[in-house]
Amino acid sequence: MTQTDLRQLTFRPGTLTDLPAIMAIIQGAQGVMAAQGIPQWQAGYPDQAVLTADLTQQAVWLAVTATGEIALTMTLLPGPDPNYQKIAGDWLTTGTDYLVIHRIAVSQQVAHHGIAAASFTFARKLAQQRGLVSLRIDTHAKNQAMRHLIAKMGYQACGQVWMADGAPRLAYELVLPAANPALDQGA
């Protein structure tokens, strides 16, 4: 995939029929993280049950290439996120008018071509269309690639949060500009 192909990337909601492809992408990401010594996603999470629940909630979004290949999966959930209620640090905004990016993974066949960055842009536009004030995301401290992307996309470090199993994650937030109809047209 080239940068030219990136312009042909589309985003669509995931369906239960996409679950095998989503699981394959997640398993590929788990393998990459394991090889890099990142303990994130190494204890059977996210599993088919978690992703089925995401799909049932219509929270999964897929990046699809011009040839129909699923290139990326991500879960976009509205706040409040129970894992974000307690933070060692401070969120940039208060309230629950935010969108959370969870379970984002790129197919290894098309990795390193800007697809993850394109998905962050898509999530920002979707949050703006919904009138939300910010986007939040978390990642493992050892996940340097995701930390780099999060910073590149303009998110600010806010502190540390803990997952339901007690695992710590670095937390980030991007405050969105006020609603702008011109931005909505490009989504």
TrEMBL record:
Keywords: Acyltransferase, Transferase. The keyword Acyltransferase applies. It comes from the Bacteria. Its EC number is 2.3.1.-. GO terms for molecular function: acyltransferase activity. Pfam families: Acetyltransf_1. Residues 9-179 form the N-acetyltransferase domain. SUPFAM superfamilies: Acyl-CoA N-acyltransferases (Nat) (SSF55729). The keyword Transferase applies. This is GNAT family N-acetyltransferase. The lineage of its organism: Bacteria, Bacillati, Bacillota, Bacilli, Lactobacillales.
